[in-house]
């Protein structure tokens, strides 16, 4: 429904990430590069998964279990890739610290590390929104709109934008939680992230049922808020610990 | 009550700044081309193909079989690469004979042609599509002024850097848009052919670009070409070593790359007949216009300033960071041909679907990053086209045939992860 609607749907899915980008990420060029590389990594993981599943697509049956297997394998692969991302990040951290010593600048602060994790998560989230939501949004810029049968109360574009928004939140902040969990060796955090991802992915299967999106979308937002709160608590705890440690060492 | 400590300057504040300064204009150019392609091509399907130097061997029609199209595209690209090679050698010869004035004049002239005529045609398409009310005289006046300021911006180095950068991006966008009007198979095979040519021309000892760069370094002069500079660099016409700017040429030989630019390389022997039969845009022969762009749009590989003393001291990773332009002294320059071919790739991807656009964009950025890292590592002239273009083509194919159906299946059922 016209350009305004198209832009509106894109902003629903990507608005918060855009404001995060402008306020936090765009100030530091290194974070922009981190966002681009994590988007690339996410895209590669998608391509690998779609390559593996190519032989079985399109799934013609309307049963839900082939999709369930699809989602489980994809989420599992992506979580494995997150560990890989963490290893690369560790190496990068060492390089950056050595570089900082050489040019006699301070080493990476805790806030810096968290910002890098945030940028990585944002890259994943934005890639998700772009590939799952924005790339299908092209018809929305035209004169009409589209409804699907299973979720007939709202235009398809709106539904997919809302789901994309919740996933963007989940991806962005679970990266912060995950990196922190790996850094501290905190098992709770390490398990939290894959579990939330898997649960959120499987929750979208609810959309298969007629009218299922009425339940599915609020539940997804519940997961997103859970992620947000957990991340907030963790960041607050670490920052106050850090500040306490700094004040006591002065 | 504890006060917030004043924000300490961290390492992350300026790291990677130079790379972002190159990534931004490349992204803007690609974005503009995608917008142009999707706005202008949605209204009119490609009714005719453009006759140009790139289609002399074969002009594609819809009814040919895939194999025919592929062979035809291959012939087209070979013809094109041959023309570009010949013209590059002519350029090397001219540079060797110190005809720098002529080259600079030619550069200004071709910038005028691109901005004036190609820019004019694109504006005409836009005016037609959106029914913008504007009269001939006002249009002519605006266009003429626009083109003249553009020529001054690329000709003289005293213009504000932002204006020069803006005009270079616009020139890149216009040429890339014209390239996307070539038939599909020809475009893709041409991109791959130019990437391979670039590889050969810069790395082989007899490659014309390598000769050109070595000549420029030995004389300590600038190659007269259209190059995007991320930050202002003053040019000296004298040959003496004027400060910082010259060191970049001494340190690492610029991998000057293709002159693909534009395909427009038409040897100077072709009379620059400015007869533009412009009644029907599609049948207009783009060749004359293209010719003008030959010399100027030399692609140069990103050159990164690295000071000699740092090169001695640093090792391994540290050098990589410094040389990549992540150090504070790095200033990156990128040739306009790079802009053009990246945008052509993304514009062509836009003609299929937006998903391919996003995938190709990420692939090109990755290629650019890899090229910069290789440059820092190997410390010698490297071509920038191959990695990005080959990655871009690979991702296009993968997205179109593998990823798209996966994503559409999932998201049309509202399943996401």
Q: What features would you describe in this structure?
A:
The complex is a heterodimer of chains A (250) and B (417). Chain A has one domain. In chain A, 78% of the residues lie in helices and 0% in strands. Chain A is built from 7 helices and no strands. Chain A has helices at 2-25, 29-53, 65-102, 110-133, 156-184, 187-203, 213-249. In chain A, helix 2 (29-53) packs across helix 4. Chain A is globular and about 65 Å long. In chain A, 42% of the residues are buried. Chain B is mostly helical and 417 residues long. Chain B has one domain. Chain B has helices at 17-43, 66-96, 100-130, 136-155, 161-179, 184-203, 208-219, 244-251, 287-292, 308-313, 316-326, 336-350, 354-378, 385-412; strands at 227-229, 256-257, 299-300, 303-304, 332-335. A 3-stranded antiparallel β-sheet of chain B has the order 1-5-4. In chain B, strands 2-3 form a two-stranded antiparallel sheet. Mean pLDDT of chain B is 73; it is low at 235-330. The interface between A and B is large, with 72 and 46 residues. Chain B: GO terms for molecular function: aspartic endopeptidase activity, intramembrane cleaving. Chain B: Homodimer. Probable component of the gamma-secretase complex, a complex composed of a presenilin homodimer, nicastrin, APH1 and PEN2. Chain B: Belongs to the peptidase A22A family. Chain B: Residues 234-297 are annotated as: Disordered. Chain B: It comes from Punica granatum.
Q: What structural category characterises the helix and strand content of chain B?
A: mainly alpha
Strand content of chain B: under 5%
The assigned structural class of chain A equals: mainly alpha
The number of helical runs of chain A is: 7
Oligomeric state of the chains present here:
heterodimer
Strand count of chain B: 5
Low-confidence stretches of chain B: 235-330
Order of helices and strands of chain A: HHHHHHH
Helix content of chain A: over 70%
- Radius of gyration of chain A, Cα only, in angstroms? 20 Å
Shape of chain A: globular
Spatial separation of the terminal alpha carbons of chain B = 44 Å
What is the beta-strand fraction of chain A? under 5%
Mean pLDDT of chain B: 73
The end-to-end span of chain A amounts to: 61 Å
In order across it, which strands form the biggest sheet of chain B?
1-5-4
GO cellular component, one term (chain A): membrane
Protein name (chain A): Gamma-secretase subunit APH1-like
Pfam family, one (chain A): Aph-1
Transmembrane segments (chain A): 6-25, 30-52, 64-85, 116-137, 157-179, 191-209, 215-236
């Amino acid at each position: 429904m016209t350009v305004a609607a198209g832009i509106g749907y894109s902003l629903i899915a990507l608005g918060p990430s855009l404001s995060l980008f402008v306020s936090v990420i765009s100030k530091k060029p290194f974070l922009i590069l981190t966002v681009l590389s994590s988007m690339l990594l996410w895209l590669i993981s998608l391509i690998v998964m779609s390559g593996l599943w190519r032989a079985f697509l399109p799934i013609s049956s309307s049963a839900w279990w082939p999709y369930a297997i699809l989602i489980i394998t994809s989420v599992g692969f992506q979580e494995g890739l997150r560990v890989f991302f963490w290893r690369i990040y560790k190496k990068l951290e060492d390089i950056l610290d050595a570089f900082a010593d050489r040019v006699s600048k301070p080493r990476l602060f805790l806030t810096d590390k968290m910002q890098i994790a945030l940028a990585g998560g944002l890259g994943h989230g934005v890639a998700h929104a772009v590939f799952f939501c924005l790339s299908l949004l092209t018809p929305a810029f035209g004169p009409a709109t589209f409804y699907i049968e299973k979720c007939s109360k709202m235009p398809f574009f709106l539904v997919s934008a809302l789901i994309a928004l919740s996933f963007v939140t989940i991806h962005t902040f679970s990266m912060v939680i995950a990196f922190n969990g790996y850094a501290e060796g905190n098992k709770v955090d390490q398990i939290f992230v894959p579990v939330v991802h898997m649960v959120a992915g499987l929750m979208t299967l609810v959309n298969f049922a007629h009218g299922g999106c009425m339940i599915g979308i609020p539940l997804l937002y519940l997961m997103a808020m859970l992620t947000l709160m957990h991340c907030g608590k963790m960041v607050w705890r670490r920052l106050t610990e850090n500040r306490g440690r700094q004040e006591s060492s002065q | 009550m504890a006060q917030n400590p004043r924000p300490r300057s961290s390492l992350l504040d300026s790291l990677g700044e130079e790379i972002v300064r190159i990534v931004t204009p490349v992204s803007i150019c690609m974005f503009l081309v995608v917008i142009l392609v999707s706005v202008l091509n949605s209204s009119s399907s490609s009714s005719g193909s453009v006759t140009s130097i790139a289609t002399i061997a074969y002009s594609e029609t819809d009814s040919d079989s895939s194999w025919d199209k592929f062979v035809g595209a291959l012939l087209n690209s070979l013809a094109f690469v041959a023309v570009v090679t010949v013209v590059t050698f002519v350029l090397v010869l001219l540079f060797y004979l110190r005809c720098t004035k002529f080259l600079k004049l030619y550069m200004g002239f071709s910038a005028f042609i691109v901005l004036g005529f190609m820019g004019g045609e694109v504006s005409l398409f836009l005016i037609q599509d959106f029914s913008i009310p504007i009269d001939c005289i006002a249009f002519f006046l605006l266009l003429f002024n626009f083109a003249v300021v553009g020529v001054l911006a690329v000709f003289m180095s005293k213009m504000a850097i932002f204006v020069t950068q803006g005009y270079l991006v616009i020139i890149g966008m216009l040429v890339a848009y014209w390239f996307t009007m070539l038939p599909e198979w020809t475009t893709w095979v041409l991109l791959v052919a130019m990437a391979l040519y670039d590889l050969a021309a810069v790395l082989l000892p007899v490659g014309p670009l390598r000769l050109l760069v070595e000549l420029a370094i030995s004389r300590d002069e600038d190659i007269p070409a259209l190059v995007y500079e991320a930050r202002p660099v003053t040019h000296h016409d004298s040959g003496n070593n004027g400060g910082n700017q010259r060191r970049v040429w001494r340190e690492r030989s610029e991998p000057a790359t293709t002159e693909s630019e534009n395909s427009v390389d038409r040897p100077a022997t072709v009379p620059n007949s400015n007869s533009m039969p412009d009644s029907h845009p599609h049948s207009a022969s783009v060749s004359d216009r293209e010719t003008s762009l030959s010399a100027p749009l030399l692609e140069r590989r990103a050159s990164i300033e690295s000071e000699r003393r740092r090169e001695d001291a640093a090792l391994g990773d540290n050098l990589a960071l410094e040389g990549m332009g992540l150090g504070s002294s790095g200033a990156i320059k990128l040739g306009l041909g790079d802009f053009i071919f990246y945008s052509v790739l993304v514009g062509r991807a836009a003609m299929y679907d937006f998903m391919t656009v996003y995938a190709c964009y990420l692939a090109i950025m990755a290629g650019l990053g890899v090229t910069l890292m290789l440059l820092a590592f190997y410390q010698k002239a490297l071509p920038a086209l191959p990695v990005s273009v080959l990655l871009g083509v690979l991702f296009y194919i993968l997205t179109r045939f593998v990823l798209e159906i996966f994503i559409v299946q999932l998201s049309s059922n509202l399943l996401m992860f």
